[in-house]
Amino acid sequence: MKTVFSGMRPTGKLHLGHLVGALDSWVRLQDTHRCVYSIADWHALMGEYEHSAGMAVNILEMAADWLACGIDPKRSIIFVQSDVPQHLELQMILSCLTPLGWLERNPTYKEQLREVTTRDLQTYAFLGYPVLQAADILLYKAGAVPIGEDQLPHLELTREISRRFNFIYKKDVFEDCAAILTPVPRLMGLDGRKMSKSYGNTINLCDAPEEILRKAAGMMTDPRRQRLKDAGHPDDCNVFAYYKAFLPARETEVRAWCEGAAKGCTDCKKILAEGLIEYLRPIRESRVRILADKGYITEVLRDGAMRAGAIAAATMKEVRQAVF
Ligand code: TRP
Ligand code: SF4
């Protein structure tokens, strides 16, 4: 079985975008791959070092969300990045051979420096973000990495760094890894902008039914449909995109009532909310059950760190033999 590796930064509550963008595919990959999923707390610290106090809670909640969504700790390895010290050890070695220019040219880095104003990213560590990500992937010799498109430059850097390692130390320790891109188109936030916690435009996996109803009621709709008797254009409506992602069985019906001006947007959004509430109900309920037993989560993470640590130690042995 090929190894899959992926990670997520524990920076807050998981939302519908994480579900369609990552977790659904992570769950499916468990059937075909050996999966290693990491709660990337070092990566989170790079952006959130001034607000690190909430990290322990975020880690616990992220683990609960993963388990509630169907990540299975018997089949997959789930662990916290900082529990396996080899990530930093390999990062150090890879840092030595990564040219500064590769990191400075990284488009994700440049974009974030430009766009993120709420956090301080002008640090030594943040420039090296992709080096740690390469270490994550290479420690487990993962052949496949499910990621979003924004992470593609980091995967490209991982390949360049691993090839440079093999070339310099004249040993084929690492193989190339390939991205697994999520097949579904990206889901926008409730207001039509990129879905992000910092815009406050998300429906979270733990949202209560009343909250989902309230949030859905405020969603942007087709701007050309001003009055009930105007025909709508579902393909230009964000609400319809949510139907397609979560309630595909109702797609035809919604298209008909929208284009035929048979139902108003208020009703359409209310029906969406009711569907989303049902969709999320099993996740929400299972999340509550899991969070009630923190000892279980801690145990899952400890077991994950042990299994991950065993693989990481074996790789580091090879790496040290190649380097020293
Ligand atoms: N950088 C990734 C993100 O923000 C998270 C991450 C950390 C990751 N390590 C990884 C993803 C290794 C894939 C592989 O989404
Ligand atoms: Fe969008 Fe539904 Fe209104 Fe059509 S009826 S514009 S799909 S909210």
Text of the CATH class of the largest domain: Alpha Beta
Helical content, roughly? 55-70%
Strand order of the largest sheet: 1-2-3
Mean of the pLDDT scores? 95
Could you state the order of secondary-structure elements as H and E?
A: EHEHHEHHHHHEHEHHHHH
SS class:
mainly alpha
Count of separate structural domains:
2
Instruction: Please state roughly what percent of the residues sit in beta strands, choosing from under 5%, 5-15%, 15-25%, 25-35%, 35-45% or over 45%.
Output: 5-15%
Question: What is the CATH superfamily classification of the largest domain?
Answer: HUPs
CATH architecture of the largest domain: 3-Layer(aba) Sandwich
Spatial shape = globular
How many beta-strand segments?
A: 5
CATH topology of the largest domain: the name is Rossmann fold
State the helix count: 14
Gyration radius (Cα, Å) is: 22 Å
Alpha-carbon distance between the termini?
A: 31 Å
Biggest pleated sheet: 3 strands, parallel
In a few lines, what is going on in this structure?
The chain is built from 14 helices and 5 strands. By secondary structure, the protein is mainly α.
Overview of the structural elements:
There is one protein chain. With 324 residues, the protein is mostly helical. It has 2 domains: 3-187 and 294-323, HUPs (Rossmann fold), CATH 3.40.50.620; 207-287, Orthogonal Bundle (Tyrosyl-Transfer RNA Synthetase), CATH 1.10.240.10. 56% of the residues lie in helices and 7% in strands. It has 14 helices and 5 strands. It has helices spanning 16-29, 41-48, 55-69, 86-97, 100-104, 107-115, 124-127, 129-139, 152-169, 209-217, 238-246, 251-259, 265-291, 294-323, and strands at 3-8, 34-39, 77-80, 144-147, 178-181. Helix 3 (55-69) packs across helix 13 and helix 11 packs across helix 13 (265-291). The chain starts with a strand and ends with a helix. The mean pLDDT is 95. Bound molecules: tryptophan and iron/sulfur cluster. Iron/sulfur cluster (SF4) is lined by residues 221-222, 225, 232, 234, 237, 239-240, 254, 258, 265, 268-269.
